[in-house]
Amino acid sequence: MVSWATLRQANRTRIMLIVAMLVLVCGPVVAAPSGALAADCAIGDISAAINSANSSAPSSVMFTLTAGCTYTYTGPGTYNDSDSQPSALPELTGHLILHGNNAVIIRDSAAPAARIFSIGATGNLELDNVTIRGGTSPSNGGGGIANQGGMLTLTNSQVVDNFAVGGFGGGIVSTGTTEIQNSTISSNTASFGGGLANLGGSMTIDSSTIYDNGSDFGPAGIYNVPTNVAATLNLVNSTVVGNTGTGGIGILNLSTFTAYNSTIALNSTQGINNQGGTQDLPSTSTLVNTIVANNVGVDCDASLTHFGGVVDNGYNLDSDGTCGLSAGNHSLPSTNPQFSNVGLSFQGGLTQVLPLSTASPALDAGNDAVCTTAPVNSLDQRGVVRPQGAHCDIGAYEVIAPTITPASATAQDVDTTVALSATATTACGATGTYCPVIDAGTVTFTVTDNQQNVVGVPVSGTVSVGSAMALFSLPTLAPGSYTITASYHDAAGVYGDSVGTSTLTITPGPPATLTLAPGDTSAAVGQSVTEVATVKDANGNLVADGTIVNFSVTGSNSTSGSAGTHNGQASFSYGAIVTGTDTLTATAVGGSTPSATATITWTPPVSTHHASLTIMSPFTPMMQAAVLTGANGGTPSGTLSYSSAAVKLSQVQLAALVASGSNATVFGTARLADGTTVDFRLDVTAARFGGTVRLRLSNGYDSGNVHVLAVRVSP
User: Fold this and answer.
1) pLDDT digits (tens, 9 = 90+) for 580-626
2) What does the alpha-carbon distance between residue 303 and residue 219 come to, in Å, rounded to a whole number?
3) 558 with 519, same domain?
4) Peptide bond before 636: cis, by omega within 30 degrees of 0?
């Protein structure tokens, strides 16, 4: 195997050639952490776990760090790894599963130079939820972690502020198999590969961000170089952005590199530099569904490639036309990706991303056959389900198109405002995918009638925790249904525009006025009177169906009832017992309880022609009657007297006699013992022996059926 020292010298010469061809933009070199950090937990615990794993091979050992703890290497002793480099921890030759529990493993800035982790050829290190910080390799490389032919799995973690002085991979160097998932590699520095260096190994980076790493020469982000075997680098749903330094290249590839749905942008000299290659080991950088854009200098440089080059596998985008993209491959050469102005930021998930704006040509421009299968697996870097739109977006970021659902609302036509609200939700996939709560943007509410005319003035509300609300000023609207259109827009361009509709129902207000029809009227006893109450609100609109109207009758007759409105109206019908005058009052329930009255005059019925009635009763009630009508009916003649313990009638004035079979009814007026005049009704039924009478007065008196000695009715 070629030594790292030989590789370092050979690549220094090669990179110097590249540097001579570039317009260099120098960036700051990140300094090591300064000041001693307090040791919250003992780093010796991790050393013990490594030793246990080494002695337990091939069985694995699991070790969980204390939550939120900082494990600090302060020296003075160091371990020598198989490459004779100092390390803060023993070299791992067994299988260790280390659950970080959000802990930090750090080298104190005053401690001797030492990398943090070293993995031997038989070692297997699984790290999750941990931060590796401040490691320094004085020569070969791997300031944070050196994987020397073994296996490294890094998940949900950060490798930051590590150094490889004059070597490879300030954050991580690997000659073995390395898998990085949902992790951040940032602010690391090396001569070659400030963030990562893959030397003849296999490295897969998934849903991770490589940013702000620096280098003395060429590759600031990732260096992929063969040894005597090919180096394989796969970049999936990941972002390589803002890497700086004298070289400032995002990715320098001399072997086999493939990018799937990734974003390589804003690096200080180049996005991708592809060079070298032999007939047996060609150097190829294959792009699919990937953005390489807005890098200082050029996006892609393959000028020093001998065998291979940058390969357009379709549906890619570059901003300067240097990546050899072809529209025939559905790619977008020389196209501004139109990133969102929020820049690199957390938009959900565990790593920062470079969001596309909603105007980006990368939206819906990806190859669904790639983004919905392995290794992209229908997700973006954050875990957002792809596609959100008609097709997948190009790059690591899928623009979320929220589903806007305005709530239906109800208001009365007399209201001046109504609260309108909407929810903003996102499409979610299987358990474990990222389903963001929309917490940005505005929703504009517009109300239209059934002719699509806008009514009132549209209002807007800010989305907070997935919902928005605004107070809409109501113009005078007739009761009925109107359409609420909720239009979502995020000025930052992080989320896509969306529209949803619902219904605003305007109902009548509470009762304000009531009228009666026909109002004052008259009818004969035996007929029925119907009064219709029409109830309206303050705007003159008919009230809602079911509004209760109470009716009461006082005067010569008394009764009551209630009815619910239909089309704003409620009716009440009644008939009279006695003649006279009634007052009918209708009162609506609710609002200002409006009411109205009508005077109902009840007249006697038409007398029966040639009718006669004779009553003889010497007992209580004492009665004597001889009443008859002529050929034309009319007002009867004769006499009628009635006296009981409760009532005595005098000065009787006969008004009508109605007879049929053995039944007769006499209507008239009379004076009571107290001098008051009342209308009376006397119902008579003749029987074989005697008969019954029932006297009812307009003052409410009712004798009930009383037996009398002799009754005769004719005809």
Assistant:
1) 999 999 999 999 999 999 999 999 999 999 999 999 999 889 999 99
2) 16
3) yes
4) no
Least Cα distance to 651 among 673, 633, 630, 618 occurs for: 673
CA distances from 524 to 14, 397, 528, 558, 601 (A): 120, 87, 8, 16, 8
Tell whether the torsion through CA atoms of 286, 291, 295 and 299 is positive or negative. Answer: positive
What is the CA angle 52-53-56, rounded to 5? 85
In total, the chain counts a number of residues equal to: 715
Residue that is last in its domain, among 306, 329, 352: 329
- When mean pLDDT is compared across 143-152, 428-437, 475-484, the lowest value belongs to 428-437
d(CA 199, CA 181): 19
Adjacent-strand bridge partners of 572:
531
Instruction: Please give the backbone phi and psi of residue 48, each rounded to the nearest 5 degrees, phi first.
Output: -65, -40
Distance, in Å, from the CA atom of 247 to the CA atom of 17, rounded to the nearest integer, reads: 11
pLDDT at 342: 86
Q: Is residue 58 part of a domain?
A: no
Paired with 667 in beta bridges are 656, 681
237 vs 247: which has the higher pLDDT: 237
DSSP 98-122: EEEEEEEEEE-TTSPP-BSEEE-TT
Q: Is residue 165 domain-shared with residue 222, that is, in the same domain?
A: yes
- Name the residue range of residue 456's domain: 403-502
- How far apart (Å, rounded) are the C-alpha atoms in residues 113 and 134? 9
Say if 146 falls within a structural domain.
Answer: yes
pLDDT of residue 613: 96
In a shared domain, residues 546 and 461: no
CATH (domain of 178): 2.160.20
Are 410 and 465 members of one domain?
yes
Cβ-in-10-Å burial (0-12, 13-18, 19+) of 531 comes to: buried
Q: Which of residues 52 and 4 earns the better pLDDT score?
A: 52
Both 617 and 598 in a single domain?
no
User: What tokens were used for 140?
Assistant: 């070969």
Residue 325 included in any domain:
yes
Q: Residue 104: inside a domain, yes or no?
A: no
Shared domain check, 639 and 521: no
Bond into 33 cis (ω within 30): no
pLDDT in tens, 411-450: 999 999 999 999 998 766 554 566 778 888 999 999 999 9
Please indicate, yes or no, whether residues 592 and 651 belong to a single structural domain of this protein.
no
Cα–Cα distance measured from residue 260 to residue 206, given in angstroms and rounded to the nearest whole number = 10
Locate tokens 């590590």: which residue?
162
584 and 523 together in one domain: yes
For residue 35, CA distances in Å to 108, 110, 143 come to 8, 7, 19
| Alpha-carbon span 210 to 51, nearest angstrom | 31
pLDDT at 129 over 80: yes
H or E element, residue 288: strand 283-288
Distance CA 215, CA 247 (A): 6
Distance CA 62, CA 102 (A): 16
pLDDT: is 79 or 638 the higher one? 638
Q: What does the pLDDT average to over 143-161? A: 97
Contact 289, 258 (CB under 8 A): no
| Rounded distance between C-alpha atoms, residue 157 and residue 552, angstroms | 81
